[in-house]
C-alpha cells in the first residue's frame, strides 16, 4: 500500500479499549479489549518511520525494531511482523499487556501530537500469531549436552531459559511455587494479565524442551551443592520480593498487610489454587487504604473494588505529578506526569503529600494518622519535604503496604553459595553476569533492584548470551 506520510497528523490515536466499568468489576477477566484489524492497520500507519527511531534506541529496553514492525502491520504482513517482534522479545504477549511502554514515551510523533500505539500493535501481532497457528513450538535440532539450572521463573528467568534452550542447552527451571511465572502469575492481577496467557507460554516452552520443576525451594528441597554437581551452569533469577515495611507505632495491629500477600491470595483464588497464609486477606465491606502510589498499589485498588470494599483510598508520600510531561523529563525521557491505570478509572480516591506516622486501633487497625507535607523541588524534581502542620486521619479496616521492594527474600541458597547482597539488596556480578562463584550467574531484579518487565526480559536474554559464551569456552 502507499504510505500516508501525514497519517500521524490526519489519523488520531485511539484510546485504550476497556470493557465497561460495571461489567469488569463483576469479574477478574482482562479489562482491555483488542482493537479491530482495520484500526490496528491505521494506527500502525501513524508511525513516522523516523531516520533515528528513538522508540527503538532510547525507549525499548529490548531494542524492538518498531518502525519496521509498524510498516509490516500497516501493510497487513502479519507473518513477517511476527518474526520481527519475536526477534527481540521472547514474550510480547506479556509486555503487550503490562509494560508501561517506554517506547511510546520516546515516540517522535509524541513530541507535539499523540504517540503511536506501539504496545497494542505488538500485542496484536503476537496474539494473531497464536490464533493463526503460525507460532508453533520449535525444539532445537541439536543439543549441546550442557545442563543449565534456572532458579526462579519470573520474566528474567523465563527469558534466559527460552534463549538457552534455543541455543541447544538442556535447561531446567526451578520454581518454589506450584506454577511457573513468578510475579507474572502471582503478583499481577488477572484483569491485567490472565494466567491462561502465562500458562500458554510455559506450555509452549515445555513443548520446545524446557523442563519446569515447580514446588521446589532451592536451598531447602535441593541444595546448592546438588545443583553444582548436576549442572554445568546455574542462573539465579529469583527476583527482589522483600517488601519495604513501614515501621511506625501501631504496625503490629491486625489488618495491616503487604500488598503482594493480598494480590497473591486473590490470584490463587481466581485460578483455584490453594494457598497457605496465617490470615486470609479480603477487602469485602472494609475501608481499605493502600499506602504507595505505584503500579502495585493501583493493582490493590482494582482487586479491593472487585472484592466489594466499602471504600478504597490510595495515598502517596510524593506530590501529585503534573498532568502533562514535566520540564524536568524532556522527550525522549520517561515523563514525570500523572497517570491513571484501569483500576483508578474504576473508583476509589487518590491522595498525595501524606506522611504516615502511626496506626491506631483496639487490636485491629482502625485509623491511619499522619501529616500533610510540602515538597521542595530541584530542577523540577521533588527532593525534600517538610510538614505543613496539618494532621491527617483516615479510617481503615484494611491497610495494604505497597511501597516497593528492597531486596531478595531470605535466601538459603545465597547463604550456601556464600553470596551476600549489598546494603541496597543487590547481588554483585561481573560483566559476564557471573557472581564471585564460578559457574553461578545472576540477573534481573536480584542484580538491579526492582525494575520493569521489559528490562527483566532484556536482562534474561543478555544472561543467556554470556552463559552460552562461558559454556562454549574452555574456562568451565
Question: What is the strand and helix layout of this fold?
Answer:
Layout: H1 7-10, H2 21-24, H3 37-45, H4 54-59, H5 66-74, H6 78-86, H7 92-98, H8 102-105, H9 118-132, E1 147-151, H10 155-166, E2 170-175, H11 183-186, H12 195-207, E3 211-214, H13 224-230, E4 233-236, E5 242-243, E6 256-258, H14 259-271, E7 287-291, H15 295-306, E8 311-315, E9 349-351, E10 354-360, E11 367-378, E12 381-395, E13 398-401, E14 405-407, H16 412-416, E15 440-442, H17 445-448, H18 453-471
Parallel strand pairs: 1-2, 1-4, 2-3, 4-15, 6-13, 7-8, 7-13, 8-9
Antiparallel strand pairs: 5-14, 10-11, 11-12
Helix pairs in contact: 3-5, 5-6, 5-9, 6-9, 7-9, 10-18, 14-15
Task: Explain what this protein looks like in three dimensions.
This protein has 476 residues and is an alpha/beta fold. The strands form four sheets. It has a five-stranded parallel β-sheet, sandwiched between helices. The mean pLDDT is 94. The chain folds into three domains: 7-132, Fumarate Reductase Iron-sulfur Protein, Chain B, domain 2; 147-241 and 406-471, FAD/NAD(P)-binding domain, CATH 3.50.50; 245-403, FAD/NAD(P)-binding domain, CATH 3.50.50. α5 runs antiparallel to α6 and α5 packs across α9. The protein has 18 helices and 15 strands. The protein is 33% helix and 17% strand.
Amino acid at each position: 500500500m502507499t504510505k500516508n506520510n501525514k497519517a500521524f497528523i490526519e489519523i488520531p490515536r485511539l484510546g485504550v479499549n476497556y470493557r465497561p466499568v460495571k461489567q469488569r468489576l463483576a469479574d477478574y477477566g482482562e479489562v482491555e479489549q483488542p482493537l479491530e484489524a482495520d484500526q490496528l492497520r491505521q494506527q500502525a500507519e501513524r508511525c513516522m518511520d523516523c531516520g533515528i527511531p528513538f522508540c527503538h534506541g532510547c525507549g525499548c529496553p529490548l531494542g524492538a525494531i518498531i518502525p519496521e514492525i509498524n510498516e509490516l502491520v500497516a501493510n497487513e504482513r502479519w507473518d513477517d511482523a511476527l518474526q520481527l517482534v519475536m526477534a527481540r522479545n521472547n514474550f510480547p504477549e506479556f509486555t503487550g499487556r503490562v509494560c508501561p511502554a517506554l517506547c511510546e514515551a520516546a515516540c517522535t510523533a509524541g513530541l507535539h501530537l499523540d504517540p503511536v500505539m506501539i504496545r497494542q500493535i505488538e500485542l496484536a501481532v503476537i496474539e494473531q500469531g497464536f490464533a493463526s497457528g503460525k507460532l508453533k513450538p520449535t525444539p532445537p535440532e541439536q543439543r549441546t549436552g550442557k545442563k543449565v539450572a534456572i532458579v526462579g521463573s519470573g520474566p528474567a528467568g523465563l527469558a534466559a531459559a527460552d534463549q538457552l534452550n534455543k541455543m541447544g542447552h538442556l535447561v531446567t527451571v526451578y520454581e518454589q511455587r506450584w506454577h511457573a511465572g513468578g510475579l507474572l502469575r502471582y503478583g499481577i492481577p488477572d484483569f491485567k494479565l490472565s494466567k491462561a496467557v502465562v500458562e500458554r507460554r510455559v506450555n509452549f516452552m515445555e513443548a520446545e524442551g524446557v523442563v519446569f520443576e515447580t514446588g521446589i525451594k532451592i536451598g531447602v528441597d535441593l541444595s546448592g551443592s546438588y545443583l553444582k554437581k548436576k549442572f554445568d551452569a546455574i542462573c539465579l533469577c529469583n527476583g527482589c520480593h522483600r517488601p519495604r515495611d513501614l515501621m511506625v507505632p501501631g504496625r503490629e495491629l491486625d489488618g495491616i498487610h503487604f500488598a503482594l500477600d493480598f494480590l497473591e491470595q486473590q490470584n490463587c483464588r481466581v485460578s483455584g489454587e490453594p494457598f497457605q497464609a496465617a490470615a486470609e486477606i479480603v477487602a469485602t465491606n472494609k475501608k481499605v487504604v493502600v499506602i504507595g502510589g505505584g503500579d502495585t498499589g493501583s493493582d490493590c485498588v482494582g482487586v479491593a473494588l472487585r472484592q466489594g470494599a466499602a471504600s478504597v483510598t490510595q495515598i502517596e508520600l510524593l506530590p501529585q505529578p503534573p498532568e502533562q510531561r514535566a520540564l524536568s523529563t524532556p522527550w525522549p525521557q520517561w515523563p514525570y506526569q500523572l497517570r491513571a491505570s484501569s483500576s483508578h478509572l474504576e473508583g476509589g480516591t487518590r491522595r498525595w503529600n501524606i506522611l504516615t506516622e502511626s496506626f491506631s486501633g483496639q487490636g485491629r487497625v482502625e485509623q491511619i494518622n499522619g501529616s500533610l507535607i510540602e515538597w521542595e523541588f530541584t530542577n523540577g524534581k521533588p527532593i525534600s519535604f517538610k510538614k505543613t502542620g496539618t494532621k491527617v486521619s483516615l479510617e481503615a479496616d484494611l491497610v495494604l503496604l505497597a511501597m516497593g521492594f528492597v531486596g531478595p527474600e531470605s535466601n538459603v541458597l545465597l547463604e550456601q553459595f556464600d553470596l551476600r547482597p549489598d546494603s541496597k539488596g543487590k547481588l554483585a556480578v561481573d560483566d559476564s553476569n557471573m557472581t564471585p562463584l564460578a559457574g553461578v550467574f545472576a540477573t534481573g531484579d536480584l542484580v538491579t533492584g526492582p525494575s520493569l518487565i521489559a528490562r527483566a526480559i532484556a536482562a534474561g536474554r543478555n544472561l543467556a548470551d554470556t552463559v552460552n559464551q562461558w559454556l562454549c569456552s574452555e574456562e568451565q
